[in-house]
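Retry 2 of 3 after timeout on previous attempt. Resubmitting structure tokens to design endpoint.
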């Protein structure tokens, strides 16, 4: 039996324009897009009809699983709470970050993230999830156990994205000790001696492991066809290294020259949607709005605030004259989908998955009214 849904009288956000009209969904796919007023179907009353958002980098599942230091929540309950917040933010495809590599700075024990991935797979099998969940492995290449964690995922089809990161002092995100001191001394209450010993150890580990681990993980991803992301590239040398590894996504570059070089080399430059909403980076690095004004911002990620992914495109289109709403929304739909090879979603176009959202926004903060995944209403 053919299942059909008509969504009418909407402002349909296409890749290049906004069309007033209706969308026909048939058997989970977009079957037709028509212009003009209609009395058939669910009346959007002029609300936006947009593609479901595609989230490539969110640490939010981790916050549900470990809501306080030393606390571990039941994995399935954490997953379902995370999923609910993701979908009601308009996100229909999400790459959940799982941390690979841990030391005294924090992280998870070996096997913990493997168990989380198994719980995600179980939740999908049992139809507990409203969004399409995939896995993004955040590999801390400077740790001595990252390969042991990574190898636990060597046959996992859920893995679609792997990022290579090094958070040692003096590297990438933390090029200045002021930033690193705030993160790791002030917030954790370390003494001067303890902080000095911690920094020396992190730098020693980075010097020993970062290069070999980066090479080995990139090689494994290339063999499996997994998209690779760089993280916090700061210099032209970092970008050249990323290009050499076949990296397709440049996450959170920390300098204008790295962002511009990454974009020019064909990498999708990703910045945080909270950075857009707040107008600045929480870690003191470059402002994403400045990259948008220069035309080198390609993808937005909610990072640590899921709802920021629907809020940020409206902020961009409101405040930057050269960025239209379709262009801004492409940063959270079409471009991230293409970057990770998901060509069946991210756009309102016939033949694609009916992953869509109804968004009301006259001014101020948008409201996500309804969400459909593959034509089935999930929120």
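Retry 2 succeeded. Sequence:
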């Amino acid at each position: 039996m053919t299942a059909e849904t008509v969504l009418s009288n909407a402002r349909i956000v296409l890749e290049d324009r906004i069309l007033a009209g209706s969308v026909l969904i048939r058997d989970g796919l977009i079957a037709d897009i028509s212009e003009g007023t209609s009395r058939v179907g669910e009346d959007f009353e002029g609300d936006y009809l947009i593609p479901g958002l595609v989230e490539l980098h969110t640490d939010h599942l981790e916050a549900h699983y470990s809501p306080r230091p030393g606390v571990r929540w039941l994995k399935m309950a954490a997953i379902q709470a995370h999923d609910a917040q993701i979908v009601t933010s308009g996100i229909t495809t999400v790459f959940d970050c799982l941390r690979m590599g841990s030391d005294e700075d924090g992280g998870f024990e070996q096997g913990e993230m493997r168990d989380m991935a198994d719980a995600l797979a179980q939740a999908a099998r049992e139809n507990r999830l409203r969004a399409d969940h995939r896995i993004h492995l955040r590999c801390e290449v400077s740790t001595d156990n990252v390969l042991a964690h990574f190898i636990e995922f060597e046959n996992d089809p859920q893995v679609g994205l792997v990022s290579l990161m090094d958070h040692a002092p003096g590297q990438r995100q933390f090029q200045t000790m002021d930033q690193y001191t705030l993160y790791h001394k002030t917030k954790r209450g370390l003494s001067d001696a303890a902080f000095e010993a911690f920094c020396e150890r992190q730098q020693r580990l980075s010097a020993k492991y970062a290069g070999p681990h980066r090479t080995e993980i990139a090689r494994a991803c290339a063999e499996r066809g997994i998209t690779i992301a760089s993280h916090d590239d700061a210099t032209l040398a970092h970008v050249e290294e990323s290009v050499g590894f076949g990296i397709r996504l440049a996450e959170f570059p920390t300098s204008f020259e790295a962002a511009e070089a990454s974009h020019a080399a064909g990498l999708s430059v990703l910045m945080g949607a909270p950075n857009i909403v707040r107008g600045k980076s929480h870690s003191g690095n470059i402002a994403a709005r400045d990259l948008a004004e220069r035309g080198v911002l390609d993808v937005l990620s909610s990072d640590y605030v899921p709802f920021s992914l629907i809020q940020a495109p409206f902020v961009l289109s409101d405040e930057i004259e050269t960025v239209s709403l379709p262009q801004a929304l492409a940063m959270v739909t079409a471009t991230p989908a293409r970057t990770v090879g998901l060509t069946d979603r991210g756009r309102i176009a016939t033949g694609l998955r009916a992953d869509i959202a109804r968004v009301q926004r006259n001014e101020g903060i948008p409201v996500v009214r309804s969400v459909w995944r593959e034509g089935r209403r999930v929120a």
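Attempt log closed. The mean pLDDT is 92.
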